[in-house]
Amino acid sequence: MQAPAHSLTRLTDYRSVFDGLADPVLLLDPSGVLIEANPAALAAAGRWLKPSLSHVLSESGWWRSPEARERFRAALELAAGGEPSRCEAEVQGVGGSHLVEMALTPILTSDGRVNQVLAQARDIPVRHRGDMPLRESEKLLRQITETIHEVFWMTNPRGDKILYVSPGYQTIWGRSVESVYRNPPSFLEAVHPEDRSRVVAGLARQARGNHVEEFRVLHPDGTVRWVRNQAFPVRNEQGEVYRVTGIATDITEQVQAREEVGRLNRELEARIAERTRELTAEITERGRVEEVLRARSEQLLVHRDALLELARLDKSDFPEALYQILKASAETLQVERVSYWTLAEDDSTISCEMLYLKSYGDVDHASRGITLARENYPRYFAAMSRDRPIVAHRARKNAATAEFGESYLGPLGITSMMDVPVWFHGRVLGVICQEHVGEPRDWMPEEVDFATSLATMASLSLETSNRQQLLSALQKSEEKYRKVVENANEGIVVVQEGYVRFANAKAVEFAGRCEEEVYSTPFQEMAHPEDRALLVGNYMKRMRGEPAPEEYEFRTLDPYGRVRWLSVRAVKTEWEGQYGSLNFLTDITERKLLRDNLAQTLAEQEAILQTSMVGIVFLVDRRVHWINATLEQQMLGYKKGDLIGHLSEVIYAFSEDYERVGRDCYPLLAAGQSFATELRMKRKDGSIFWCSSSGKAIDPTNVMAGSIWVLSDITVRRQLEEELSHTLAQREAILRSTLVGITFTVHRRHVWVNEKVAHMLGYRVDELIGQPSVIHFPDEKTWADFGAVAYAALARGEAYTAEIQMKRKDGTLIWCQVYSEAIDPEDLGKGTIWTFLDITDQKRAQEDIRRALAKERELSELKSRFVSMTSHEFRTPLATILSSAELLQDYGDRLPAAEKSELIDHVKAAVARTTQMLDDMLVIGKADAGRVEFNPEPFDPCGFCLRLLDEMRRASNGSHELSFASRGSEEPRMLDGQILRHVLSNLVSNAIKYSPRGEIVRLELDCRDDATVFEVIDHGIGIPDEDQARLFATFTRGRNVANISGTGLGLAIVKRLVDLHGGSISVESKVGHGSRFTVRLPVTTARAHG
Amino acid sequence: MARILVIDDETPIRANLSRMLAMEGHEVVTAEDGLAGLDCIRLQRPDLIFCDLVMPVLDGHGVLAQLLARTDTAAIPFIFLSASADRSEREEGLRRGATDYLTKPFNLGEIRDAIARYLVSPEQAPGAPRDGQ
Lengths: 1090, 133
Hints:
heterodimer; A: alpha+beta; 32 helices; 39 strands; 42% helix; elongated; B: alpha/beta; five-stranded parallel beta sheet
């Protein structure tokens, strides 16, 4: 920028011009630190702007949004690179927020470097101050559109140019408003590919009439939102469509609720499992978070708090910052001595800057200035220059610190040290020393981290204090004011004696003449002829000290006939020793044009809001200040304007809701947040409907300025939700009351059980929850074995099913069919779902059937044994009979008499043998049917035994030796002789049959007081152990009988007869050694049976 | 005129068969169990054998197996006399190489028929009738 010909000589003059600029002007250094702000800026921004070292403008709270901040940052970067730039941004201000246009101009030094950046702000859209009603209405509409969540848009009839999109676009489309202005088709690219062709087809219909389309929008982060877009054409006076406006609403929740209900009804079954899985995830997630929280050490929190505290410090005052840092270290790390030592420029010495003593609670001033030389402590100095802390758990042993030894560590009692170098611009400036006194301590990694952070803080503080010094020098320079004035966005003109004495670049531009001409032309001649009188009149009055308008508008006319509207503010000033008029000029040509358009745009915007799908109301002091037609007429049923000025209470269904909202919403509104609720509203006709309502203050700093409320009828959604919650409740009820027992088990512990399983096991639901499943297993081993098998299958991703016995609380056992699946076979810790079915009754029935079948099998086996026995045992005597008869028949005449007689004896013996078998079978049959008679009578067992043995000896032709022995009483006893004969003859003949020829068979009698005991002892083949149990069953014989013939009936008969006598029979036997049969018959005094 | 061996543990059966065969003009040898039967076969070289199936010490199958194992005795006709009428027992006996299988009680006529059918005359080739089974 070239200096004007008539440059000002006194810098103070420039300063006064800078201060007089009406638009906010800021001076920044290229990194964005605010050096100076003119009074207009300070007045407009209030507390948001503070010229100070730490005030980096792009990081201040002045910006209303992160986007605004970003745009400014981008513009600043350009300007800092030497290129003038512009940006639009919303900023905080005393009276609320402003949308400003900011022009950034780089200010160069003589050698072409960017030294400072001049930022000039101007409110947009441009408004005229006198136009208050229009301004207010525009503000209101803008705030409404920005407050509500719907997107309002306006396009040309073909839909390929976007004239306006409200900020809600960002929320619903997930993309910036700027992006769609820049690239209108991008709104279509965001539409879900499946819906896109439908939406494109719909665009053509928008211009023909109202058009509604529902489609999905894909956000860059992958989320999908459902949007209902309603479009309606706007016609001009000729009835032609010249614009299309519309509203897009986010209906994701309604769509989701709608889909959810449909889906639930179809998939109720499947969702049971899913629901349980969700439950698990939630439980495990909660568990994990708690674990992490627990794990987080208290110590780290303390460190963090200390660092946060330090971060808030004003670091521009280095000694103060250092004091706080050393103190924080001593207090937080519990270290007695914490000091900061400065390293000399030539690295030869360190000297103590500050020492904080924890026990003293303050700085020890006496230590300041103590100096240690490198030549005495070479290892320590070497360690310090490495960019890492010196951590000495044992100071006397550590290589770096041992050399302090007796002279330093000893007298001070220092045992452990942790020294962290402070780096600044690539070199070590000093070191922070933590010196621990007392028992040696081990420095924790967290503590080292903390100390390192403190060193970083110290270096930051050094940096800021350095910058502070540089900047205060800069601020003193007045040179900058001249540059500001020269570069100002406003035209600045000083008029003295009817001529322009000074005009900045902007003013020259406004005049439409070259600089020379501006200075040489009487000033009024540059104005439009119609305004010259006004201009001269005001100038004269001001110079004479008479009242003159401080602010007015006039037109300029340049030599080419171009007219320009300017607004001027003028003051009388002293300029280079004389009075003159200082004028600030603003080009309002565009503003004038815009104002005309504004009215039309506003009418259109209002039309959109009026017909929005949602109800919108602007309340001031809870009274209706503005309300759209949708809410007033469609939703509430009033006539236009009925509600204006009324308390909003009239549309609440319940006064409690009105009071609740009033009470709850104001804190939120005042905090700049929106307040949302669902409540019932009342129509004019008294009917009630569900509504969602959300409100936001138009200016959080002044809640009394009013709030915007958006209402939508959610009757349908409410119904869907109720249906949904009903379905969920049903599902819960089904799970609870299902006939199958269900448990959800994690690490074999029940997390959830339904009532059925509790009932099945005899517990209450709350008694089972939290318990390990072992409590309802028969024993721990069964539980462990079952778990090993079941969880192995589950880990393979298989479902596991089994029939097992469970133990009820009362100890009884039931049979259960269990079925299990793992939530995640990869991680059984996520839990398993078990279903239990009580199958005790089925099991019992099965058992009965099994037993009946076994009985059946036994009978059939018995039958086949009987058949085979009869076949063999009857055929042999029959063969004798038949052959004897035939011999008599065929050769009778030739046979001698003795032989004939022998043949007849054969027949008789064979018949007797078959008869005996038939008798035996008859006895068995009778015994089984309980029809054998029992007739005890006084009886001499001893005599009986002797007679029986005598008979047996004869029958066996002396093949074996038969002996007898007797003990005890010789009195007669009540015994059934017939039964006894049958029993003993059977046992003795068996003993003979299964003993080798010539062996002894003994019969022993013991007549005790309580019983008569008979024992038959042989030294025969014996009976295998495994056959002894079934020895007395019908048709069973020992497996070692080989080909010794027999029916298997004898012992069966013996057993039945002994039973009949009320006695018992037992056997002891060993294969190859012989057998001992013992029969005990009780002593009876009376007849036992009839 | 032939030498016939009767092996049976039932005394009346042995007595009746011996008597009947003697009346028919045959020389009769008897044994009361399988082991004794094998001794008789080795020492007496019978022309035909009637043998009980179920006997102590060594049963009829055991005797038959020993008989067939020796080339000098394998050709002797061997007829089971069994108290088991079970069809499967009969088939088992024939499968193992018995010449015939008679069931107790038997007619003397069956005994005579068997002798007439199986007794090998010196001029006949040994083993021929057995192939016809």
